[in-house]
Amino acid sequence: MGGPSAERAISLLTGVAISKNLDPKKYEVLPIEVSKQGRLSLHKNILLNEKNPKHLDLSTEKDKNRLDIVFIAMHGTPGEDGTVQGMLETLGIPYTGPNVLSSALAMNKVFAAQIYTVNGLPTPIFIHFKKDGWKTQKEKILSDATQKIGYPAVLKPVDQGSAVGVFIVKNEKELVTAIDKTIKKFPWLMVQKFIKGQEATCGILEKEGQILPLPPTRIIANKGEFYDYKSKYSKGGSTHICPADFAPEINEQIQNLAVQAHRALGCRGMSRTDIFVADEKDAHGHNKLFIIETNTIPGMTATSLFPEAAGKIGISFSEMLDLIIKASL
Questions:
Q1: How many Å apart are CA 79 and CA 99, to the nearest integer?
Q2: Last residue of one domain, picked from the residues 193, 227, 251
Q3: Region 159-164 average pLDDT
């Protein structure tokens, strides 16, 4: 848990929640905090309130042999993008969740959207560009944003989670301001069609080799104009309705899309796909659905969507962690 990303604080909360809920009869929990500099510290206490935790060196057989499996609770880079997974693969240490390729693809919103599209899954139309492109092809990017995407539009970094760096822009002037502000920190951005509608999410667990979709959740953001960082993590920031109160056929469609996204990206053990139920209707008068992204390490804090949805079908936090570990082994 931890790490250098913008989601470090949330990762520590997820890690502590997992540590507290792992069944002590089955597991000896070793809480490993990754510092902003990438140093691994082994705490005795799951609450991480130790003054001088021991340094863990995975290049030594002694430290490596202490670990039967690593439960990755590190959101963002490098925990969710395949980097840590690659390190553990190289060291021959089993770990939870999707593998190197699935993690890397899901974390990159451009590659994930391309995979959804190739697999015939609905995702909002988008353009993307890097820092150099913004310097040299500004006019073309703005013209594409107007003609292909239209306004309002959503600007987001390609490889961040927890809605970090996301802006909803209403016109070209707002888009330019948002890009100028964001591109210094996040050098690869995408502009995506804004979907007017309601936000939903659906978790996937694997149980005895079967892909099990959890009940979908409808999310009402109380703090921001969408389900942003503040809505996600502050108390009362959002209202979760689980199972979602959409029509039964929409809930079923959400589950089907979450299963298909999990499969298309080659995920393992768990994932959670965020989906918009658009106000816009298709030719048959049904609401259109759009996949926004798939999370390979869903938040698992006290207010998180994933354990909450598992609980609705009688799977306790502790049992949910067992299933993730079993699927990963």
A1: 11
A2: 193
A3: 72
Task: Identify the pLDDT of residue 233.
Answer: 56
Q: Is residue 213 part of a domain?
A: yes
Q: Give the model confidence (pLDDT) of 204-213 as tens digits.
A: 999 999 999 9
In degrees and rounded to multiples of 5, residue 283 shows phi and psi of -60, -25
The burial class, CB within 10 Å (0-12 / 13-18 / 19+), for 197 is: middle
pLDDT in tens, 57-68: 999 999 999 999
Per-residue tokens: 283: 């030719």
Instruction: Collect all residues with Cβ–Cβ distance below 8 Å to 215 and sequence separation of at least 6.
Output: 202, 242, 243, 244, 251, 309, 312, 313
Dihedral over alpha carbons 141, 147, 148, 153 (to 10 degrees): 80
Average of per-residue pLDDT values in the chain:
93
270/219 same-domain check: yes
* Neighbouring residues of 306: CB distance < 8 A, sequence distance ≥ 6: 203, 214, 270, 272, 298, 299, 300, 320
In a domain, 88, yes or no: yes
Residue-level pLDDT at 238: 80
Same domain, 166 and 236: no
Digit-coded pLDDT (tens) for 81-102: 999 999 999 999 999 999 999 9
Tell me the per-residue pLDDT of 173-183, one tens digit each, with 9 for 90 and over: 999 999 999 99
Measured distance CA(100)–CA(109) in Å, rounded: 16
Domain extent, residue 72, equals 8-96
Q: Please tell me the distance from the alpha carbon of residue 97 to that of residue 269, in angstroms, as a whole number.
A: 5
pLDDT tens digit sequence for 114-130: 999 999 999 999 999 99
**167-169 β-sheet, strand order:** 126-130, 188-193, 153-157, 167-169
Tell me, yes or no, whether 202 and 189 share the same domain.
no
Point out the domain boundary residue: 148, 163, 193: 193
Q: Dig out the tokens for 115 from the structure.
A: 């995979």
Tell me whether residue 116 is in a domain: yes
Q: Are residues 167 and 284 in the same domain?
A: no
Question: Looking at the predicted structure, is the pLDDT value of residue 51 above 90?
Answer: no
DSSP state of 214: P
What's the pTM?
A: 0.92
